[in-house]
């Protein structure tokens, strides 16, 4: 027979309370000892171990049609990019925010459309002052706050402040062969407001495009040597005696692989890294190394694309070697479309179309100017061999990275950034973006919503026909509207047939400009006035050549 001992309820409550108190006290002591002794916070480490490394590879002037996995008729061998695509997701409707270098890079790192900055058209130069505004949140600064090591390797092209020998800073607005202000710079002094000032722990690379002086490597805030000679990679200017353009892509590739090797162990312990890897290629000067010269059988540009493909292969091999490929998000894209400097005629003669089925090329408002290759590979979370038709913009890196690490984006950051993480994970059943805004080298605007694309200018807005300042645009409609479902090559302007669409999209674009953002949130100021119609009006009133020039090519 079992004996049961009964206690009064008050005594039971007292015993339970006493035991809970002692247990709580013990927990507090253990926590205090753990913190005081410097023992690791294993819970936090476990959470960070799930955050991926992120490598963002930004090719320079590379067309959508230059990768076989995206263009079945591509005549260039791109085995590593094809492998990256087959092992991840291809975004078929991805766009740079601008059709030229500097503006796109601004958008990538800030999540803000470039035309909201002080740069309303064109690009910066090698000695231009910083473009990213002080105290603006960036992708690296945000990730750094969440435990990431951040590095930028390659072509910066967002301005930095070079000290002059006589005091002050270089204020180059454009390259001037006569004055060549590069010789006025004191290269022994630290460079101010460069990549390290916007959240990067480490920087190695060049200040701007490889055809813009000064021709020196920069590590963090220091020029690596003093220019003593003049060299010309299209534009002549101050150069370090050992600097050669052909060496840049191999050197920045080696540096990126070196960082992966150095940071792999920490990444496995919950200290992930973000590497922003903006290439100098296949932009001019088009200089593939001897190992790649003639490999494509087409021309030097296509050889250079093959070398870019090899660079991607080296990065992927480094991740595999270090055992961190599974939880590393690798994104490959380009800052804009292929440049006419690549010699389209030579490529067309060999049946290669770098712009694929899209009209135009770099600098244009047409699709060939800003529709870019975009591949996302993340074995841990992206299903291999998948595609996404989601409309996306390169400004979306900011919100996507924030979504990945669980960061809250403040109202004054990432104003034009939308997370594409749901698309990467094949969980997006509806459009993630309401619309996307495009911008040409001359500052012409375009807005895309669903299958409609409105362009607020006559002609290309850039360098292809009809070209502002070269071809007669006076008799063309001031705006263009294309139905991309039925006319992805933008051959038939249907603005006259759909005035209601023109009105709707113009109103939406104006609201984006007025609110200082295109995403939900509190309105923000733009940096300077935003005039949506200025470039289009300017194009129609430029010096008009003979009208037969337009009719001849129509």
TrEMBL record:
CDD domains, A to Z: ARS_like
Keywords noted in UniProt: Calcium, Hydrolase, Metal-binding
Coiled-coil intervals, chain numbering: none
Pfam families recorded: Sulfatase (PF00884)
InterPro entries in UniProt: Alkaline_phosphatase_core_sf, Sulfatase, Sulfatase_CS, Sulfatase_N
Region Disordered, residue ranges: 512-554
Ranges of compositional bias, category Basic residues: 544-554
Molecular-function GO terms, alphabetical: arylsulfatase activity; metal ion binding
Keyword Calcium part of the UniProt annotation: yes
Domain Sulfatase N-terminal: 52-406
EC number in record: 3.1.6.1
UniProt superkingdom: Bacteria
Protein family: Belongs to the sulfatase family.
Stated name of the protein: Arylsulfatase
Organism: Gimesia algae
């Amino acid at each position: 027979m079992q004996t049961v001992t009964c206690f009064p309820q008050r005594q039971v409550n007292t015993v339970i309370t006493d035991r809970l108190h002692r247990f709580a006290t013990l927990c507090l002591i253990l926590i205090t000892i753990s913190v005081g002794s410097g023992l690791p916070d294993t819970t936090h480490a476990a959470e960070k171990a799930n955050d991926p490394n992120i490598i963002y590879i930004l090719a320079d002037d590379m067309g959508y049609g230059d990768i076989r996995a995206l263009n079945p008729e591509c005549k260039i061998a791109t085995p590593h990019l094809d492998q990256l695509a087959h092992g991840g997701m291809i975004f078929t409707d991805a766009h740079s925010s601008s059709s030229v270098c500097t503006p796109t890079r601004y958008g990538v790192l800030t999540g803000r459309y470039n035309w909201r900055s002080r740069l309303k058209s064109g690009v910066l130069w090698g000695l231009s002052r910083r473009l990213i505004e002080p105290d603006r949140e960036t992708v690296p600064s945000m990730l750094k706050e969440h435990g990431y090591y951040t590095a930028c390797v390659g072509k910066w092209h967002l301005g930095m402040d070079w000290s002059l020998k006589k005091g002050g800073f270089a204020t180059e607005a454009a390259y001037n062969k006569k004055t060549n202000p590069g010789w006025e710079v004191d290269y022994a002094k630290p460079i101010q407001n460069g990549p390290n000032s916007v959240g990067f722990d480490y920087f190695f690379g060049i200040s701007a495009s490889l055809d813009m002086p000064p021709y020196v490597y920069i590590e963090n805030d220091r020029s690596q040597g003093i220019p003593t000679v003049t060299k010309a990679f299209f534009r002549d200017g101050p150069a370090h005696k050992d600097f050669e353009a052909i060496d840049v892509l191999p050197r920045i590739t080696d540096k990126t692989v070196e960082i992966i090797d150095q940071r792999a162990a920490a990444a496995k312990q919950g200290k992930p890294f973000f590497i922003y890897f903006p290439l100098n290629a296949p932009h001019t000067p088009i200089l593939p190394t001897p190992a790649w010269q003639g490999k494509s059988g087409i021309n030097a540009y296509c050889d250079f694309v093959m070398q870019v493909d090899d660079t991607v292969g080296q990065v992927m091999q480094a991740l595999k070697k270090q055992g961190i490929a599974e939880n590393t998000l690798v994104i490959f894209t380009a800052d804009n479309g292929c440049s006419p400097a690549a010699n389209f005629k030579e490529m067309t003669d060999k049946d290669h179309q770098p712009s694929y089925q899209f009209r135009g090329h770099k600098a244009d408002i047409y699709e060939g100017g800003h529709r870019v290759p975009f591949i996302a590979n993340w074995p841990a979370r992206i299903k291999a061999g998948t595609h996404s038709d989601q409309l996306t913009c390169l400004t979306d890196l900011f919100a996507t990275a924030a979504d990945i690490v669980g960061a809250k984006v403040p109202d004054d950051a990432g104003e034009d950034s939308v997370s594409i993480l749901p698309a990467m994970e094949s969980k997006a059943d509806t459009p993630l973006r309401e619309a996307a805004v495009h911008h040409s080298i001359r500052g012409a605007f375009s807005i895309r919503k669903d299958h409609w694309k409105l362009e607020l200018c006559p002609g290309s807005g850039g360098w292809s026909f009809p070209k502002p300042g070269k071809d007669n645009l006076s008799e063309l409609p001031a705006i263009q509207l294309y139905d991309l479902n039925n006319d992805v090559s933008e051959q038939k302007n249907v603005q006259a047939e759909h005035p209601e669409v023109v009105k709707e999209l113009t109103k939406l674009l104006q609201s984006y400009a007025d609110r200082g953002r295109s995403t939900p949130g509190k309105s923000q100021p733009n940096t300077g006035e935003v005039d949506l119609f200025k470039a289009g009006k300017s194009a129609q009133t430029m010096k008009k050549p003979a009208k037969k020039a337009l009719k001849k090519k129509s």
